[in-house]
Amino acid sequence: MLASDKLIEAFNQQIGNEMGASMQYIAIASYFDSETLPQLARFFYRQSEEERGHAMRFVKFINDVGGRVRIPALPAPKSDFASAEEAVAQALSWEEEVTRQIYDLVEIAKADKTYVGVRFLDWFVEEQLEEVTTMNDLLAVIRRAGPDRLLFVEEYLVRQGTGRLESPAASAETA
Ligand SMILES: [Fe+2]
Ligand SMILES: [Fe+2]
After folding, report:
1. What does the alpha-carbon distance between residue 114 and residue 129 come to, in Å, rounded to a whole number?
2. From ligand 2's centre to the CA of 52, what distance in Å?
3. Nearest ligand by distance to the CA of 95
4. How far is ligand 2, taken at its centre, from the CA of residue 17, in Å?
5. What is the full per-residue pLDDT of the chain (175 aa) written as tens digits?
6. How far is the CA of 148 from the centre of ligand 1 (A)?
7. DSSP strand E in the chain: where?
8. pTM score, whole prediction
9. Interval between CA 26 and ligand 2 midpoint (Å)
10. Coil, strand, or helix at residue 32?
11. How far, in Å, CA of 64 to CA of 120, rounded?
């Protein structure tokens, strides 16, 4: 087999982490929906789909290397938020945690000399930089607007076009 049992097990756990994030972002999107903030809701529904895509990358890898996909039980997402700032601050700390999880996976892949896994994880290392940056930016915009002026945040997201914040580097890449 192209990957060690230990790495397959850790990747299966990460499928759970990514699907957990996907569900968490549905909960956050629904909070914004209930607050009649459709752009923020849309932003998090999109993020949720992205997280599912991340999980599916791990599913594909495990199947490609001949491992067994075993999806772990998922904890219930948090559904109640006191404010937009709280919801997005939590999203940021989850992204930071996922970044640490990805780094741990890189360590396992390297220790097991699963170089194909190291290459596979490169994409996630870069993706996490973008995810943390995006969430940081959104949190900064929400804090600047303040709790009574979240419509500014909505306008801001509309101006971003896709509803997703992007760093100048990311725009340069697609240009
Ligand atoms: Fe992810
Ligand atoms: Fe993410």
Report:
1. 23
2. 10
3. 2
4. 10
5. 789 999 999 999 999 999 999 999 999 999 999 999 999 999 999 999 999 999 999 999 999 999 999 999 999 999 999 999 999 999 999 999 999 999 999 999 999 999 999 999 999 999 999 999 999 999 999 999 999 999 999 999 999 875 455 554 444 444 4
6. 31
7. none
8. 0.89
9. 13
10. helix
11. 12
